[in-house]
Design goal:
This protein has 170 residues and is mostly helical. The chain folds into two domains: 66 residues; 74 residues, no CATH class. It has ten helices and no strands.
């Protein structure tokens, strides 16, 4: 999002939130912009509109970022149902079914060949495999949420901090 696009959003917010100290000066504008600029204008604009229509409080940067982050595309139990159906058809349709999976389900499964392996396994234990799949899926969903919630510079700084901490003797 460009500064000019963000100026339009701030102008709209200032019409609704008439508090004197709400994004009161250039410094406040710069902070807000630096923490939201990595998001597309259309998403921020829509998030602000949603917030204005559903909340009685003044928005924070976190409120806007959270509204820009979509929820998990498919819940883990529903994701397993999709995968389980594909396992039953894996001998003939593994590639086609895998291509139709939502991206997070694809990441959790890994590849169409994994569907074939599960489908051909005489000792396939659905309880074990579904548990493993759901654990992996949940971890991927959490990581995806973090990646979408925080801007890249914050994620990089956080990773660098973790590396510093891990490198020190405790």
């Amino acid at each position: 999002m460009t500064r000019d696009e963000f100026k339009k959003i701030v102008a709209a917010m200032k019409v609704v939130y008439t508090f004197e100290n709400f994004i009161a000066d250039g410094e406040a504008f710069n902070v807000w912009y630096s923490l939201l600029s990595d998001l597309p204008y259309s998403e921020v604009s829509l998030a602000v509109q949603k917030f204005m229509q559903t909340s009685t409080k003044v928005p924070t940067i976190a409120d806007i970022r959270n509204l820009c982050v979509p929820e998990v595309e498919v819940f883990e139990n529903d994701a397993w149902v999709i995968v389980r159906k594909a396992i039953g058809r894996a001998n003939y349709y593994a590639d086609d079914d895998f291509d139709k999976f939502p991206p997070l389900v694809q990441k959790a499964v890994g590849s169409p060949s994994q569907l074939r392996i599960w489908g051909a396994d005489e000792n396939f234990n659905e309880g074990v495999e579904s548990s493993n799949f759901k654990r992996i899926y949940r971890q991927l969903a959490e990581r995806e949420h973090i990646n979408r919630t925080y801007s890249e510079n914050v994620r990089i700084a956080d990773n660098n901090k973790r590396l510093e901490i891990e490198g020190k003797d405790v």
